[in-house]
């Protein structure tokens, strides 16, 4: 593509990759929180989502999105999207009694 750089991916593909990883990490964190937390008030569930946010940055680096490519806005986006999907997914799991 004309917008690709010689050493990286296009901005569209980069955004799609980051969004997909944050969505999957948030949903996975909800399932892990549901498995390890005794109730919704258990702090372990929040620790799981914090670990999920922190675990994404090495994954992004392996994919080719290094720390130099991530601005403060991007880091906040990763944290918010992971938290939002974790919150909604875990809420559904808690309500359904899974």
UniProtKB/TrEMBL annotation:
The chain crosses the membrane at residues 16-37, 43-63, 75-96. It comes from the Archaea. Keywords: Membrane, Transmembrane, Transmembrane helix. InterPro entries: EMC6-arch (IPR043941). This is Uncharacterized protein.
